[in-house]
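re: that chain from earlier
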Amino acid sequence: MTKKTKTMDEIFRKDRDYRFFEIEARSADIEGGGEELYVEGYALTFNEPTVLWEYDGVEYKEQIDARAFAEADMSDVIFNYNHGGKVVARTRNQTLSLTIDNHGLYIRARLDGTDEGRKLYQEIRGGYIDRMSFSWVTASNGSDYDATNHMRTVRKVKKLYDVSAVDIPAYDTTSISARSLVAAEEKIKQAAQAAEKRKRLLLKTFC
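^ sequence. v structure.
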């Protein structure tokens, strides 16, 4: 039976947020021979605006508050490839560590435990794969939007699902997120226009 290849729509779920960051490969000698193979880097940095999308000359941005992960569920986060490959590290067996500091969220994944992990490490080290992506869900009412500065601030992450090494982010998730910001901004404008219209009608009624 032919194995079906997942489409990008199937890999990147629309109920989660994804962001892309650089990743580095490092190794350490094991006593008695062999190597421990690690990939690591900051998955995200706090309070640094990232441009998600530019539309009609306007940049729509997002930043992550330094307290956003304070109550996030990170009990079982996995590391894989393109959000759909076999798991090569995870927090539950302590081959993936996540550290929150003043700068951001730092990850370190040990990949020498599986054939797939060792292969992925070599591809990262060789520069064939040089990005990683996180997927998460923002808590209900866990973000706010500043329409004046076109800035979304994530203040509370509900759950962190996975860290993934990615090649080319072929699926434009950032554009999808930014279009939701445009829609939110339009709703704010429409609400303001409706309020102004009601105000004018009331003035006419009582004048």
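Confidence is low (pLDDT under 50) at residues 5-13, 170-179.
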